[in-house]
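Revision sheet: structure tokens.
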Amino acid sequence: MKKNIIIKGVLLLIVLAVLSIGFGGCGVVISTTGTVHITIANDNYWYDIYIDGVWQALTDGSGNLTIYNVPIGNHLFEAYDTSWWNLYGYKWKYIHAGTNYVTIYTY
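Predicted:
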């Protein structure tokens, strides 16, 4: 009798596992965003960073910034100097899932 209950319990767990995989998917996650590491190449100052015309953040004093969850696709990255020099630079870059690097030269 005990053996029969254990076998039924194991079968029930197997059935539940198969059903959860069937209804929930196999667990494959397709990322639709990437991480972007931005570097201002020819200056180590603070810059306002824009992606497609939308302000994102301010770089650190070394001209570096990491932005997470950037949608996959082609984007315009712009850097505006925060000093009275008013330096500016931009870069078009296709962003893929995972880690991306964007180097912007300012003039």
